[in-house]
Amino acid sequence: MIALYDRTAHALDRSADTILPTLGRFVFAATLLIYFWNSAGTKWGGTPFTPDIGGYAQIFPKVMEAVGYDISQMSIFHWAVVVAGTLAEYILPLLIVIGLFTRLSALGMIGFVVVQSLTDLYGHGGIEHAETVGAWFDNLSNGAILDQRAFWVFLLVALVLKGAGPLSVDRLLAGRRAS
Predict the structure, then answer these.
(1) 14, 82, 123, 144: least CB-packed within 10 angstroms?
(2) Which positions, given as ranges, span the membrane (predicted)?
């Protein structure tokens, strides 16, 4: 029985580098790709380089409130952050799904999720609502920040550590470099 377990564990270990990153990218595409693209779409009016009130209000909620939601009072810095954030919400998920620069893209998405979470907590007041923040080890799995985003980051960390897997542009490019 132990020998069978050891052979099975060894076979699973050998297949992990193929299965985990490929499955991770599939799960990302199935659960988060459209979420991020839809979120990005709420931030611009016409093109990603022309953010509208939604973009500024989502990323700089307290500043927008202070200026009476008048985007003409926002600085070039605010514009650049909204444009960069919007482009990141489109580009980084796409790169992860196709498996191009996957480790770097997943690392960028981890940073994005951290900033997104801090904005949700402190900019939008989520910190004041226990059900939004959630709590680990509380027998509930639906806290939007601590619970759900922990899974997002875990998935992205796996991609940073394992790369894109065999069915990816990264692997195709690596094969060309080796030739």
Answers:
(1) 14
(2) 20-37, 76-101, 150-169
Per-residue pLDDT of the chain (179 residues; tens, 9 = 90+): 999 999 999 999 989 989 999 999 999 999 999 999 999 999 998 888 999 999 999 999 999 999 999 999 999 999 999 999 999 999 999 999 999 999 999 999 999 999 999 999 999 999 999 888 988 888 878 888 989 999 999 999 999 999 999 999 999 998 777 66
Secondary structure of residue 44 in the 3-state scheme: strand
Helix axis angle, 76-98 to 102-118, nearest 10°: 130
Per-residue three-class SS string for 47-96: CCCCECHHHHHHHCHHHHHHCCCCHHHCCHHHHHHHHHHHHHHHHHHHHH
Contact (Cβ atoms closer than 8 angstroms) between residue 52 and residue 42: no
Q: For 44, phi and psi rounded to 5 degrees?
A: -135, 160
DSSP bridge pairs for 39: none
Rounded to whole angstroms, the Cα distance separating 89 from 92 reads 6
Take residue 28 and report the two structure tokens written for it: 């990302």
Dihedral sign computed on CA atoms, order 34, 40, 173, 23:
negative
- CA end-to-end distance (rounded Å), the chain: 44
Assigned token pair, 160:
């940073």
- Cα–Cα distance measured from residue 39 to residue 42, given in angstroms and rounded to the nearest whole number: 5
**Structure tokens given for 83:** 């444009």
